[in-house]
Design a protein that fits this description.
The protein has seven helices and ten strands. By secondary structure, it is of the alpha+beta class. The strands form three sheets. It has a five-stranded mixed beta sheet with strand order 5-4-3-6-7. It has a three-stranded antiparallel beta sheet with strand order 8-10-9, with no helix packed on it. It starts with 12 loop residues before the first strand and ends with a strand.
Amino acid sequence: MSLRLGDTAPNFSADTTTGPITFHDWIGTDWAFFFSHPADFTPVCTTEMGRTAQLAEEFAARGVKPIGLSTDTVAEHVKWIEDVNDTQNTTLRFPIVADADLKIAKLYDMIHPTESETAAVRSVYIIDPGKKIRLTMTYPMSVGRNFDEILRVIDALQTGDTFKIATPADWVPGQKVIIPPSVTDADATKAFPQGFETIRPYLRTVKL
């Protein structure tokens, strides 16, 4: 199944390390960071699970719920969490989905046969409270994710939703943003009374 930006994230019911969930109900009115891993008890995955746990307060501040997945059982996940906590000096509390039959991994196109027929690649789905997919990223099995970028793009999406703006390359909160070309100068003046800079007719920046 090919999932695209703006699609409704497929719903599913599954067992997790924190109990059974129905995905849409679990998201509720929050955002979700849904990310997959090749397997439990593997080195790169252990660091990623640990980093997600270490960033719990950062995700919570943004109204984002992390949820992991690998193609293993709840029992294996629970045992692995002990290793994650011990080696990464953290306490992992977010749920990890059990998907030993690959049903959810296939639903979300997380199985890439040239990488593995049975293990999920490192997929990322950022899902908004409307259950819409807002961002996808896919990393190979050998490359750990950049969590600074994951938080940055969540900030960019949420800022864009709030202020109806776009963000330039490498943007981080506090920097200038872009007024979309679809917004007229007259409407921009009303929306941004602090003033904006016109670099080109199609490139206008503003400090929020």
